[in-house]
Amino acid sequence: MSLKRCLFLLSRAPNRASCLRSTVAVIGKGSAGASTVLRHCTGETGASGFISCRNASSSSAAKPPDTSLFVPLHVKATDNGEGSIGAELTQPLDKSEVLKVLNRFYKRKEMQRLAAENGLDARLFHQAFISFRKYVLESDALGADLHIILNDFCCDAGHVDDLYPYFMRHAKQIFPMLDCMEDLRKISDLRVPANWYPEARAIQRKIIFHAGPTNSGKTHHAIQRYLTAKSGVYCGPLKLLAHEIFEKSNNANVPCDLVTGEERTFVNPEGKQSSHVACTIEMCSVTTPYEVAVIDEIQMIRDLSRGWAWTRALLGLCAEEIHVCGEAAAIDFVTELMYSTGEEVEIRNYKRLTSMTVLDHAVESLDNLHPGDCVVCFNKNDIYSISRQIEARGLECAVIYGSLPPGTKLAQAKKFNDPDDPCKILVATDAIGMGLNLSIKRIIFNSLVKPTVNEKGEKEMDTITTSQALQIAGRAGRFSSMFKEGEVTTMHRDDLPVLKEILSRTVDTIETAGLHPTAEQIEMFAYHLPDATLSNLIDIFVSLSQVDGLYFVCNIDDFKFLADMIQHIPLNLRSRYVFCTAPINRKQPFVCTSFLKFARQFSRDEPLTFDWVCRHIRWPLVAPRNIKDLVHLEAVHLTLDLYLWLSYRFMDMFPDANLIRDIQKELDNIIQEGVRNITRLIRASETNTSSGTGTDAIPDDDIPLHRTFPKDRGLNAEDLPEARQQKQGQRRIRGSKMLGYRTLDTKQDGSLSSRLVQEGLLSTDLLEQLQREWAASQANGEDPWKETAGSGRKINSKGKKKNK
């Protein structure tokens, strides 16, 4: 190496003093000596030196990250003028020789092992090498130091292992998390969530657990203490429950405010906060001091999606007394959780106030329904079908399901409860399990199978749990209703022993509580990984997160779904995070489209005014003519909910909340009118479908409109609707059998007509009518598939269409 080259490298070296001592020894030693001094001067110690640079403080117990989540960044070559210097000091690189050098480096097992010790597993090592090779071969101007050392290798000087520091430098550029892995682990350490709430830890709280089944009076006793306190907060799982406590408090002359995600109601005319507040559990404040707090339905702390809200309330509420209400299955867990905070738990057990009997016979036919009956279904298809069949028998029925607005649910509940109203039958989903006071004599399970979401966020059909069965069955024979004794049974005979077995089991004890990363934690993550998407940030966070045996990280699929949807829209991280926590139903295409438009308008700094929203939803809307219209109105109502939710987080950008609330009330009345006439809407849908004048098939909100599959596998046979249908067997078609449809075995008859009858989309009467029309057309010598002359097309003898 020439003295000129050595002096150039010396001028760039961070340890120039030691380099000066080495300069004399460099002269005359050739390229190998030059490479040695180069590594010494630039602070690169080679492969062997990196062994001592490993982070010895990293915990061996920490779980390895899921490196499949690490997305490599694209590194562009920057021309800083050194490329020409490197070529001037050596010579232009022979890219074919450089490729051979790089391939020798890649095959070195020692390099792969050393890279693994520094965070690059086989997957990352391969991705980093591909990126490094592309960078070296396609860059017109490499850094002088890299250019020189590659030239030395091409001249058979030095060892290929000396390329390792430059490879690692590039790897850390495309995988920046490698340089800050310990920091990321500390940020995502969720092992002591009690320490997140210093205000609560600063006081000595008294925990009182009111344990008992449905209709045992446990919540009533907690609310009595809440009403006598100087200040209090009620935290419930539903808006309906919060609204019920809000009204009960104010009727008892205890001023109480209402706080939900979409609504703030202050009873003080000047807008001052009252001493009491009823809220949905996600909205409770963990910094406001109270005398009494009530946490309802504590068993939901294990919910895979919302459990984090109960964990936050239980650990973080600043109240002298915290009254926890729920199933006895949560007693041991809550006691253990409070042990970690040094707080004792007082247990108060309650028994059911009225009796509940499991009948020995199934209903078997809608002809056997009686006043006070509630038929429970687990999808809207069965709701629509059964309600139509009930009214065909001259009976009126009320309908309640999850996607109905709260006002409509209350109106239907009032109609069913009114002793002077001819409506004596209720058809509902498990939405009746909480939040509605209903005068039910007998609960009838139309099915015992419902869609569930497993720990991986995948949807599957499963038999209801004991907890779910007790929650629903417990609605029969409420203490405050006209029926003092409750009964429960099934619609189908062979389901009854299954129900009895489910109800006889002990409810599974609660063992873990949910957690969810906060906006602050994600912001700290983003500081270290500024180029990662929000969806990727949350994935890496969960991958690195550490929780002890009492906790789990809640399902984040909905969050990631929204994050991916708006990733292309320019938003700051905090705003993006808030948008992605919006409680929307991602199975509703109109709601998702509205969410996207809201985010895009927000990013342009253009306020979403009342007029803008009216144009978007095409207000004013008319009463629904069929089921499809009704479902759309429900989606519009959810869209207005989304606007109100965002208006409390971005008041300046969503300024017309009051006007939106006014039209939402009008829309609620329109939906109520549609639900009152639901059988007429069903008939209209069936008429349109059978006559071919429309596509108003009865929707089912339990099945995603756009199903997605894991990226690591293709579409398998069991993913097809027919395969799922066969897998579920005859239990899946019981709703159709009860309605008078003929049951066909798809294994024996796989025709289209058989499947349509089996799925309840075609009745046997309609099928027979089609067969008669076919036979008549054949007898008359007509072509039943021939189109009319007005269509402009005809079918030739070979079955192909051709234009006239």
From TrEMBL:
Any single Pfam family the record assigns to this protein: Helicase_C
SMART domains (alphabetical): HELICc
EC number(s) from the headed UniProt entry: 3.6.4.13
InterPro entries (alphabetical): DEXQc_SUV3 (IPR055206), Helicase_C-like (IPR001650), P-loop_NTPase (IPR027417), RNA-DNA_Helicase (IPR050699), SUV3_C (IPR022192), Suv3_C_1 (IPR041082), Suv3_DEXQc (IPR044774), Suv3_N (IPR041453)
Enzyme kind, highest EC tier: hydrolase
Domain Helicase C-terminal: 358-526
Keyword Transit peptide listed: yes
Predominant subcellular localization, coarse grouping: mitochondrion
Cell compartments where the protein resides: Mitochondrion matrix, Mitochondrion nucleoid
Any one Gene Ontology BP term: mitochondrial RNA 3'-end processing
Composition-biased stretches (Basic and acidic residues): 703-725
Comp. bias intervals (Basic residues): 795-804
Region (Disordered): 687-740, 775-804
Cofactor annotation: Mn(2+); Mg(2+)
Catalysed reactions listed for this entry: ATP + H2O = ADP + phosphate + H(+)
Keyword list, A-Z: ATP-binding, Helicase, Hydrolase, Mitochondrion, Mitochondrion nucleoid, Nucleotide-binding, Transit peptide
GO CC entries: mitochondrial degradosome; mitochondrial nucleoid
UniProt-recorded Gene Ontology molecular function terms: ATP binding; hydrolase activity; RNA helicase activity
CDD domains: DEXQc_Suv3, SF2_C_suv3
Record-linked PANTHER family: ATP-DEPENDENT RNA AND DNA HELICASE (PTHR12131), ATP-DEPENDENT RNA HELICASE SUPV3L1, MITOCHONDRIAL-RELATED (PTHR12131:SF1)
Protein name: ATP-dependent RNA helicase SUPV3L1, mitochondrial
Source organism of the structure: Acipenser oxyrinchus oxyrinchus
